[in-house]
């Protein structure tokens, strides 16, 4: 079969690899029907995630059809259409029992495309299939289901829920790529009084407005001063960092009011300065996190009931065999206008 293989920083190849088989009783082998590329995959290619070994198949967001299951799998069977979660859960350890699947001690967590081969391939092995896949209802298509593999639960859990967004809040989202847009979409579930999107790209600011941002700003527009003016000099209640670079994290800490919350969602490859000399006296709460995907069943029900409008998130579509071209497009969003790419099997 073909797969996208990482060969060290800056090196990737769409090449022939052996088709996976079940190794453990709880495994499933899934034929990939639709897959996407994550910003984290780009971080891996930049060398920001040294735990990823050369020779690893990348990818952790996919929808597929179950091809084969191990003898202990009970909730899915061959022929079922499933969402493959970006987080794998053993379902038994202390963290899984607390629905903190991202911290799984039993061999799960973020392992697909990280510590084991991922899903940017024609077939993928999924450990702990009973707790790491979700049956898809007929009314949810493959394309919209892809957004539940990672970006929607990540933005909702690590951004909106960790940021404790409540009705009437002023919420600032710094960086409105796919994660930032999903944060805007899911923050709206809590009826904030104002959502402000900050991004250097005009096209992304326009898309943020279409998805519910009340105001969009470019970084060079003196964002801090404008937000202070809009909030009577106090600052935002919540700032969601959705980029993963020091400047945007530090900007978020300057945008929130005393007692405000900074929810960091971005994947950071370099240290960021934490100005405790300024923050300690302002009662600022800072949260970080890896998604647990505990919200995926809820979001899936909302998607099936047409309570989440994810139209416009997928901007570019390819055949699965066009993986190299899809990476080129996704990796140059300033030129291509790409938000989220989707690749489909023939």
From TrEMBL:
Organism: Streptomyces virens
Membership in a protein family: Belongs to the zinc-containing alcohol dehydrogenase family.
One Pfam family linked to the record: ADH_zinc_N
PANTHER family: NADP-DEPENDENT ISOPROPANOL DEHYDROGENASE, ZINC-TYPE ALCOHOL DEHYDROGENASE-LIKE
Name of the protein in its database record: Zinc-dependent alcohol dehydrogenase family protein
SUPFAM superfamilies reported in the protein's UniProt record: GroES-like, NAD(P)-binding Rossmann-fold domains
Record keywords: Metal-binding, Oxidoreductase, Zinc
Region Disordered: start-end pairs: 1-24
Domain Alcohol dehydrogenase-like C-terminal: 178-303
Alcohol dehydrogenase-like N-terminal domain segment(s): 25-130
Cofactor(s) for this UniProt protein: Zn(2+)
């Amino acid at each position: 079969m073909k797969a996208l293989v990482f060969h060290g920083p800056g090196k990737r190849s769409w090449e022939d690899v052996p088709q996976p088989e079940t190794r453990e009783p709880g495994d499933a082998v899934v034929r990939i029907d639709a897959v996407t590329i994550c910003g984290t995959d780009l971080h891996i290619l930049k060398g920001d995630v040294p735990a990823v070994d050369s020779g690893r198949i990348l990818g952790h967001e996919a929808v597929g059809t179950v091809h084969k299951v191990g003898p202990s799998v009970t909730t899915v069977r061959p022929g079922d259409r499933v969402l493959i979660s970006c987080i794998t859960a053993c379902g038994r350890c202390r963290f899984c029992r607390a629905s903190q699947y991202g911290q799984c001690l039993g061999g799960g967590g973020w392992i697909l495309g990280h510590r084991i081969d991922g899903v940017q391939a024609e077939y993928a092995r999924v450990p702990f299939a009973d707790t790491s896949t979700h049956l898809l209802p007929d009314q949810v298509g493959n394309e919209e289901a892809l957004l539940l593999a990672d970006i929607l639960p990540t933005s909702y859990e690590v951004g909106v829920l960790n940021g404790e967004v409540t009705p009437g809040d002023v919420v600032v989202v710094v960086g409105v790529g796919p994660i930032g847009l999903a944060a805007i979409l899911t923050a709206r579930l809590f009826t904030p009084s104002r959502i402000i999107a900050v991004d250097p790209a005009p096209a992304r600011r326009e898309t943020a407005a279409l998805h519910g941002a009340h105001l969009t700003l470019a970084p060079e527009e003196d964002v801090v001063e404008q937000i202070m003016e809009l909030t009577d000099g106090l600052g935002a209640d919540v700032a969601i960092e959705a980029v993963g670079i020091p400047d945007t994290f530090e900007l978020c800490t300057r945008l929130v009011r005393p007692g405000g919350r900074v929810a960091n969602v971005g994947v950071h490859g370099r240290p960021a300065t934490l100005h405790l000399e300024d923050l300690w006296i302002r009662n600022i709460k800072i949260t970080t996190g890896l998604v647990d995907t505990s919200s995926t069943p809820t979001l899936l029900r909302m998607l099936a009931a047409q309570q989440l409008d994810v139209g416009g998130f997928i901007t570019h579509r390819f055949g699965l065999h066009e993986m190299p071209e899809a990476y080129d497009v996704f990796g140059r969003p300033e030129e291509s206008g790409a938000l989220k790419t989707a690749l489909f099997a023939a």
